[in-house]
Amino acid sequence: MRVSNMLANTLREVPAEAEIVSHKLLLRAGFIKKVASGVYSYLPMGWRVMQKIMDIIRDEMNKAGGLELGLPSIHPAELWLETGRWNVYGDELFRLKDRHQRDFCLGPTHEEVLTDIVRKEVSSYKQLPLLLYQIQNKYRDERRPRFGLMRGREFIMKDLYSFDKDVEGMRVSYKKMYDAYVNIFRRCGLEFRAVEADSGAIGGKTSHEFMVLAQNGEAEIVYCPNCEYAANVEKAEAHPEVLPGEELKAIEKVHTPGAKTMDKLAEHLDVPKSKTIKTMLYKADEELVCVLVRGDRSVNEIKVKNLLDCVNLEIASEAVIQEEIGIPMGYVGPVDMPQKVKIIADAEINYLSNIVVGANEKDYHLINVNPGRDFRIDIEADVRIVEEGEKCPCSTGSLKKARGIEVGQVFQLGTKYSEALKAVYADEKGNNNYIVMGCYGIGVGRTMAAAIEQNHDQDGIIWPMTIAPFHAAVIPVSSRDEQQVQVAEGIYQDLKNSGVEVIMDDRDERAGVKFKDADLIGYPLQIIIGKKTITEGTVDLVIRKNKEAQQSVRVENVVEAINNLIKADIRSL
Ligand code: ATP
Ligand code: MG
Predict the structure, then answer these.
(1) Counting Cβ atoms within 10 Å, is residue 99 exposed (0-12), middle (13-18) or buried (19+)?
(2) Smallest-distance ligand from the CA of 408
(3) Are residues 74 and 219 in the same domain?
(4) pLDDT tens-digit readout, 7-54
(5) Which of 73, 390, 455, 522 is a Cys-bridge partner for 461, taking CB atoms 3.0 to 4.6 Å apart?
(6) Ligand 1: which residues within 6 Å by Cβ?
(7) Tell me, what CATH number does 141's domain have?
(8) What is the pLDDT of residues 487-545, one digit of tens each?
């Protein structure tokens, strides 16, 4: 490939719309082009990287026994009504009507469509297990499309679904996929961690997310430096801090004007926040519920949602609280909470004594309040967010927090979709059983963006060798110097013949422009042909990730040197 034949316009300016490094660099290097909010075209350079990532994914899926197929993007509403997701998927589902006014949606995920195929094609245990996958466009009308390919509304995903006879089989398939994911992200040159995750709207119980560690990550994870434990903050189990009991004191009402926040209250009464209770009122679908956590903790809404098995969970508005129970916001407390409001207490609440709570009256709090004696608890559960520094369940380390980009997720679904769609198989005895499923997704564009978040410097992208658009660029310093061009052409042809993916910068541009573009686009290796090449017979070989370590290599040794560097780089992953 020659740069003069490439469609790749680089930009010097940072596009105003881009907030994070990967988005800026993908635009500046001419890899993608915006079409609409959350909708992008992949230009040839970007598409090469996408293809490389897809090749690695495909290779690992096939090695794990996956069968590739192609599923449609247009799904009839009937299938989604059968699983109930037509009504619960909400605004994220792109819905459309055909000319006969029939309802359809653009597939955000493919459990429905594929399970429909399997229920029609599979009847016997002899046909299982099956691992079916595709690499295809997905559509999600995200509330906030942003960060370029990170959170798009149309994006490319590899999704595989496993179909097994029983739970044991599903676990085997899950392990195969988990291991394949580890191989994929390692081969893409990424630093990542698999973390325990909540399974959210997809369903099922066991799930892991594959997180690329990056400061710009939207997700927060906790991990233990001493053991394998790592979880998404949404999922991470919290273990109650056990405090020694105190002699119970008499409850008292105190005047706390303006102490509407935890900090103000703790300061006003001169008590640590851990001796207060945060009382949060939520609307869980139609029901008003009260959630209690220690004043220095935060409510984990995902845990509350899972506990109550509700579709919507929102903080109750001032108006709703006033109307339903007549309590002023900021002074809500659990003492004498009306029976109709369920009280959910975090597991730590029962270890507290003589604490401060809202008095359900403007400008007043109660002190020396004690759980059990002064207020009831309807449900006790872990409903809080884990904090950095807490003890790990392994009990040797203290937990740390980090940010990550979720590039893939694997789920054990069980029979959620096979029951809804009646996908059954006949076992050895002729009895019908539900097929046990798993599903496994990887965002291809998000993986490309995550690779840039982890691999860049002030000059541009530094592609890992395995997913670089080209392994090497040949750059003659002066395209007008016939001797230089002749040597460059020779090296370019020899590299191509030896199997190297090489691009030749044959443009009549200043050397500085060519070097800047090569750095921005991020070819792992640059071969620079200049005056010295003609006088001394050597070229400069620049390794992008470590530009200082420039080597001088004799022209006749270039092909071997480049091949060795590529091999060593790929082997190290
Ligand atoms: P998120 O929590 O980030 O919205 P998700 O958990 O809904 O993602 P999954 O349904 O698990 O996503 O999809 C599998 C993979 O698809 C994700 O791990 C991610 O890499 C990718 N992905 C999901 N949503 C998007 C999106 N809007 N844009 C780009 N990639 C996405
Ligand atoms: Mg996910």
Answers:
(1) exposed
(2) 1
(3) yes
(4) 888 988 888 888 899 999 999 999 999 999 999 999 999 999 999 999
(5) 522
(6) 109, 140, 142, 151-152, 155, 157, 202, 406-409, 441-443, 445-446
(7) 3.30.930.10
(8) 999 999 999 999 999 999 999 999 999 999 999 999 999 999 999 999 999 999 999 99
